[in-house]
Amino acid sequence: MSDERTPAPEPDGPGSDGQDILAEIQAEVEHDLEDERPPAGGPAYQVVGALVALVVGIGGAVLAYGYGLGSPRHPGPGLWPFVVSVVIALMAVGLLAVGRNLSDSEAFTRSSMLPVIGLATFVGLGVLMPAIGFEIPSLLLCVIWLRWLGGESWRSTIITSVVTVAAFYFLFLYGLRIPLPHLF
């Protein structure tokens, strides 16, 4: 038996063109990614982000407490939102403690408003649901989030929104028997 092995290509030999092309593509991708990133923030942005999260966590805990916590054996409707809100607040306190030493934050840009718009539309869902039911506000929320915040096509937005609302409708009203205000 003879041991026939293919010799490795020389650095300047015939196989180097493929490696050069891959290196050029990788450099272009890294350059494009750097162009898309928002400018770097700093420790102050970490602190501001932590303060916003702290306000959201405390506010959520207060609102959830108002719904009633119940007991571990008979949890009330506010128990899980309360737990999640407390976890958010604790994580925010942790970020406040170490945030001044971190530098991996991004500066606020126009795209920083997207979460604010998302939160505002979610609050709108909560305000409209008792007045006009679950279906229309949920459909509007899905359309706004998918089309304008997510940049999806109209076709994808409509199909996904209708299927999502229908799935939640049947899940909450018939599967879990949660008495949501509804039109149908």
Keywords, please?
single chain, 184 residues, 2 domains
Determine Rg (CA atoms, Å): 26 Å
Major β-sheet annotation: none
User: What is the ordering of alpha helices and beta strands?
Assistant: HHHHHH
Strand-pairing-aware structural class: mainly alpha
**Stretches with pLDDT under 50, minimum 5 residues:** none
How much of the sequence is in beta strands? under 5%
Compact overview of the structure:
67% of the residues lie in helices and 0% in strands. By secondary structure, it is mostly helical.
Model description:
- The chain is 67% helix and 0% strand.
- It has two domains: 70 residues; 75 residues.
- It starts with 15 loop residues before the first helix and ends in a 9-residue tail after the last helix.
- It has six helices and no strands.
- The chain is mainly α.
Annotate the secondary structure layout.
Blueprint (H helix, E strand, L loop, with lengths): L15 H21 L6 H25 L11 H20 L14 H20 L2 H15 L4 H22 L9
